[in-house]
Amino acid sequence: MIHIVFQASDVDTLKKAFELEPALTGDVLLIEDEWAVGPIAGIYTPEGIEMRKQWWREILSGGDYDGLVDKAEKDDNVRVAELKHGLEEDQKEIVWIWAAQNKHDVSGYYWLMSQLKDFQGRIFILYLNNLPFINEKGLIFYPENLFQIPPKEFLKARKLARPITLSEFEIDPDEWNRLCQEDKGVRILEGGKKLSQHPYEYFDEELRKFISGDWVKASKLIGQFLNKAKQTTGDAYVLWRIKQLIAAGELDAQGELKGMKEFEIKSKTAATTTMPEEVVIEG
User: Fold this and answer.
1) Which of 50, 159, 273, 281 is deepest in the core (most CB within 10 A)?
2) At which of 179, 195, 230 does a domain end?
3) Residues of the domain holding 250
4) What is the band of 16 on the pLDDT scale with cuts at 50, 70, 90?
5) Which pTM was predicted?
6) 51 within domain boundaries
């Protein structure tokens, strides 16, 4: 059994669930890219893949994750190629795709499953869509991410596993192809598996609400945005948007514009208008 998740924190949570239920144990494959942002036109072609890599190089350039794209041992495309090869070699192997109610998981699901139609009947989905779970305090909650679910609750979640249907393998790739053709920068989950797309500046308006006339470290601002904003994204993307606002002249900055802890920002200082002195005419 191969388990697939879309966020690094999900891996540890799932492995803790294995300790409680050994029957669940299997290899855990992490899809690392943040498929809810960035270019996706021609994403299954060499040109589209390289275009996306180059976009990430620009986003991460000079920041806390500078060079990460080229430092990675392998990318998601290599992981999926290896997965498909393994499924061809072992006809009894099955895959469980775990996805929670968030744009990151759903975007990753669309990108991934669109490549696995040849293995229909062996690809299972566990989509935790608006399902109640019990948190560590014994209270009912509706998790937006897998890592928010206590490991013992995964034993209940496993009962949701079902094969991705032939109909889904026809319809869902069509929806993903539509998004790829639109190729906007930000994908937002509207409910169920419905994604809407928006320009790269989508988060800017909400980000501005956390910026005042007082100097604040970019790292602190990003933390506030990620903890309080209704719609968020990765810290690297937010750092890039802050730098874009500075370049556009919307924000004042001091320090070196590199990592998020290396500079401070505040709202743009209003230009001071010098009023002419009153002229007194004697006579």
Assistant:
1) 50
2) 179
3) 204-267
4) confident
5) 0.88
6) yes
